Amino acid sequence: QGSEEAKAFVHAVLKRSMPQMKGEAIQDMLTRKALVLEYYPKKKTKQKRKKVKGFTAKQRRQLRLFEIEPEQQRYAIFLPLHELWKQYIRDLCHGLKPDAQPHMIQSKLLKADLHGAIVTVTKSKCPSYVGITGIILQEFKHVFKIITKEDKLKVVPKFNNVFSLEIDGFISYIYGSKFLLRASERSAKKFKLKGTIDL
């Protein structure tokens, strides 16, 4: 295209795209050879993220998600879990050295994950619980599920029971009545070092 044809083409495009402007104004823009094209992007509508709904407590019970099958209820199966737990505690407490301060280890154990720990019921208001020893398989808010050396799965309530936990010669006591928390909640809780001790 020649220059005149090109000028006429641009003039026509501007007139069509900006009908509100008069011919003089368009001519002025062409004379200055400066043109600012305004662009108005479309507003993007934010899509609401759908919340992923988990199972309800009733559905979890129906699906038996937390139940351990009878053929899996064997002490020997969970011994490697106990070895992993011991290594986890050693790393958490920086080696459990003889010169380590007991109250520091105690405070770390209070917040530690106990799945895989070997515990013993040392005191209880119900005598039948005293002496139960085994590996903690599951911890809930109110109970521990423990597998014993006799391959029996015991459900031991925390309330009114005292548990002992031993690792590398260090013995810690868990007062179940002060321990009525889920494992995930316990990791964020601040425990008082001193307080009333009872069952």
From TrEMBL:
Domain of life from the UniProt record: Eukaryota
Protein task: Component of ribonuclease P, a ribonucleoprotein complex that generates mature tRNA molecules by cleaving their 5'-ends.
PANTHER family: RIBONUCLEASE P PROTEIN SUBUNIT P29, RIBONUCLEASE P SUBUNIT P29
GO cellular component: nucleolus; ribonuclease MRP complex; ribonuclease P complex
Keyword DNA-binding annotated: no
Keyword terms of this UniProt record: Nucleus, Phosphoprotein, tRNA processing
Entry keyword annotation includes Nucleotidyltransferase: no
Subunit structure: Component of nuclear RNase P and RNase MRP ribonucleoproteins. RNase P consists of a catalytic RNA moiety and 10 different protein chains; POP1, POP4, POP5, POP7, RPP14, RPP21, RPP25, RPP30, RPP38 and RPP40. Within the RNase P complex, POP1, POP7 and RPP25 form the 'finger' subcomplex, POP5, RPP14, RPP40 and homodimeric RPP30 form the 'palm' subcomplex, and RPP21, POP4 and RPP38 form the 'wrist' subcomplex. All subunits of the RNase P complex interact with the catalytic RNA. Several subunits of RNase P are also part of the RNase MRP complex.
Family the entry assigns: Belongs to the eukaryotic/archaeal RNase P protein component 1 family.
UniProt GO MF annotations: ribonuclease P RNA binding
Name of this chain's protein: Ribonuclease P protein subunit p29
UniProt gene name: Pop4
Protein location: Nucleus, Nucleolus
InterPro entries with a match to the protein in the record: RNase_P/MRP_Rpp29-subunit, RNase_P/MRP_Rpp29_sf, Rof/RNase_P-like, Rpp29/RNP1
Gene Ontology biological process terms in this record: rRNA processing; tRNA 5'-leader removal
